[in-house]
Amino acid sequence: MGTGQFVLIALIYCWAATASMVIAPQTANVNLLWLPAGVAIAALLRRGPGLWPAILVGALAVLLSNRTPLILAIALAVSQTIGPMVATRCLRRLAFHHALDHRRDLWHFCLIGAVAGPLLTACLSVLSLGILGSVPLAQLPAAWLYGWLGAAVGTFLLGVPLLTMSRSTLSRALGGWRWTLTFLLMGACLASGLLAFSTSAHDAPLSPLIFLPPLLLCWMAVRSGIFASSLTALLVTGAAAYATATGRGPFFEATMAQSIAVLWIYACTLSATPSLLTALVGELRSIDERYQLSAKLFEHLHEGLLITDANHRILDVNPTFSAITGFSREEMLGTIAPLMRAAPTGSATERQQTEMRDGLQASGSWRGETVDRRRNGEPCTLQVTVSAVKGQNGQIRFHALAIADITQAQAQRAQLERQAHTDELTGLPNRARLAHLLREAMVASEREGFLLTICYLDLDHFKPVNDNHGHEAGDRLLVDLSDRLRRSLRHWASGDDAVARLGGDEFVLLLRTATLEEGRHAVERVMRSVSQPYGPGVGTGPLSITASIGATVYPIDKADADTLLRHADHAMYGAKQAGRNGYLFFDAEHDRRTEQHFEALGRVQDALDSNEFVLYYQPKVDMRLGRVLGVEALLRWKHPQHGVIAPAQFLPLIEHTGLSARVGDWVLQEGIEQLAKWQRMGLDITVSVNISARHLQEPSFAKLLAGLLGRHTTPVAQRLVIEVLETAALADVDYTCALMEECRDLGVRFALDDFGTGYSTFTYLKRLPLDFLKIDRSFVLNMLVDRQDMAIVEGVIDLSETFGCKVVAEGVESPEQAQRLIELGCDVGQGNGIAQAMPVAEVYDWVRNYKNSFPAPRRAATIQ
What is the CA radius of gyration of the chain? Predict the structure, then answer.
């Protein structure tokens, strides 16, 4: 809100207040004709609610200038601001338009702007007068009534011209030579009013001139618009009010209340009549404009339009309809619409008409496509929309049909579909269409139980045909081959066999068979058909060519559509490698690999049964104190022919099988047994056993562990450490935490192995009841030359302290690494630089004879 606009509104408000006090009397701090109410509502509606401070300042200035006490002035100014603000907010929510050229806007302005808003202002003002004692209680009802009606009349008298004033209304009243008639009518209204109101109150009887201004205002409203007529009504009313207040004119009565009542009625008549007439004229003009617009749309719409009566007789058609059908408007008028004519019984047209009637009855409209004929007999496809137009009694009076000629669009769509789904040379389905056919055939196979043989066919030595006889001959051969493949297909009640061309000399067949043997016979039949000589149209003479076919059978090969094609393609290359001119089913190769897998699993099971597995042990030492703290049990396979095999060569094979848990049980049992033996020999060290994810998730793991520990009287549980990988610990965090707590109750401790190589988060890590973190060897190996690895090692050490865990470094290979780890606060190490994994027979002597080869300690730490 600009300062200039603020000041202007406040000044206009003050001017209107001055005019009100000049032309109408004031009683009990209430004006009987309050024009500032019109200024307030117009300003807030046209310039925005943000102008309310200007209204408040203007009202306060007027009241203080009349020597109203400050507190009362503030209360009355606030009341005169709140009423217009509330009315403005309500009108804006109702999408009020200030032009007042529709009855809806006029009624809203009357009821809300000129009645409800002033009513709220009057209530608040009278409440202020009563509370502050400015008006006796007996006079409050009269003050409330005078204040309300005075503000209401003022809102209508001055609010309407201020709201409707615009360039267009000024142009309508004063543009061209129209100003002459406007000023003549305005002068006539004012002159007749002055003559009627200049007489003494007790002179002659009521002058007929008093009725002339309303008639002239109606004329002015029609010719010059609402702004000119409402402004003139304001001037005439002002003259009448001034005359009545000075004791002249026909409205002066013995009491002021009677005089004001008659004046209010006359003022409302002057303002309301031209306003209502203007609104009616505006609506009629809008109706006429809409009619003209509808007529132009009807004539120039790109869709054909046809209007019928309730009996389907044509009342009118637009030029587009005639252009589409070829029938002129004169030919169609009075006839039955072609789409509505009775169709032969049982025909598709009759069924469509039934659907149309049902749709019209249910929802009042129907949309669909129909095939009709133009006047010249040419068929055409039309998109038709039929709508029923009902009268006030609910009965159908008219039907409106909109038609669009989609003949060319349909033809183009069909052509695009053929190009998108059909091979241009052979007319066979292409790769995109094949995918759809294959999915449909797979669903049918599941539903009906037949076998679907997917054949991938590739011609043998096709390139020499193009090189020796030209591409035209090659294309002709492919067309002849396509015809043969079509003829080799069989037809079934559940669907037909299918053939598609992928490109070049590659084809795919979908053959439905009852058995595998029948599928082989079907493939052989295709092979014989392909290998027959091709006629002279292909080359200089008869030409023979062979093909290689790869096949797979669904649902024996339980794969998705793309994978089935890859399997068939793979088998086809196998047929090529086998010498061409043959076929190969994918299942044999698949079975061979599966058999090899199961043979390998069986060999691991045999190794377990034959006690070919052994445990090697790698020491863990306190590098600062030079003391052996424990050993880690590492699985080895002592193969009869291949010697000692590392676990990386056979554990991944059994990782996701039940054999993984059985091997883990053996390792756990052997590790505990060996720990008990060493304790009986007086060797006080820990034994760490690695547990796989599958083994850890076994429901009976804790029970098994308790049983193994219970066999021994020595404190084996307190010296047993179970090492788990990050992936195993976080597979099911809730279950893992519960399991670890149950095992810890037995005295067992836990270490997180290869920490940093998985996907641990601090949220999960702090939930796990861990005792040790093991830094993975991949970080320790290059920590002295790789700053990132060094940062990771430092981070893990700090993290272990944060979570109350002890840290162990794996892969310690050199004294320099050990020295750096000790400086960082990691005292416990394990690696080939300390000792390689050794058989159980060597462990006791190694521990007894161990001597520290690392630097002297700077602080003590233990893993016990």
Answer: 51
pTM more than 0.85: no
Counting every residue, how long is the chain?
864
Q: Which residues contact 121 (CB under 8 A, 6 or more apart)?
A: 37, 79, 80, 82, 83, 84, 147, 148, 151
DSSP assignment string, 14-35:
HHHHHHHHHHS-EETTEESS-T
Dihedral angle sign, alpha carbons of residues 552, 553, 559, 560: positive
Continuous segment of H or E residues that includes residue 279: helix 256-300
Residue 29's region, left for phi above 0, alpha for psi from -120 to 50, else beta, is: left
State the distance between the two ends of the chain, measured CA to CA, in whole angstroms: 80
Confidence class for position 321, pLDDT limits 50, 70, 90: confident
Edge-to-edge strand ranges of the sheet holding 365-373? 314-317, 304-309, 396-405, 379-390, 365-373
Question: What does the block give as tokens for 355?
Answer: 């659907």
Cβ atoms of 15 and 237 within 8 Å: the answer is no
**Between the CA of residue 670 and those of 66, 155, 515, 612, what are the distances in Å?**
110, 102, 53, 13
Six token digits for residue 98: 């200030």
In contact, 304 and 404? CB cutoff 8 Å: yes
Closest CA to 714 of 667, 739, 747, 751: 747
d(CA 548, CA 459): 6
CA distances from 389 to 300, 304, 307, 308, 398 (A): 22, 18, 10, 10, 5
Contact 631, 619 (CB under 8 A): yes
- Per-residue pLDDT of 795-846, as tens digits, reads 889 888 888 889 999 999 989 999 999 999 999 999 998 999 999 999 999 9
| pLDDT tens-digit map of 177-190 | 778 887 888 888 87
SS3 of the chain: helix, strand, coil, percent, to 5: 55, 15, 25
With tokens 């149209």, the residue in question is: 537
Element (H, E) at 764: helix 762-765
If residue 551 lies in a helix (H) or strand (E), which one and from where to where? strand 547-554
Strands ordered across the beta sheet of 451-459: 498-503, 506-513, 451-459, 547-554, 583-585
| Neighbouring residues of 126: CB distance < 8 A, sequence distance ≥ 6 | 135, 140, 143, 144, 147
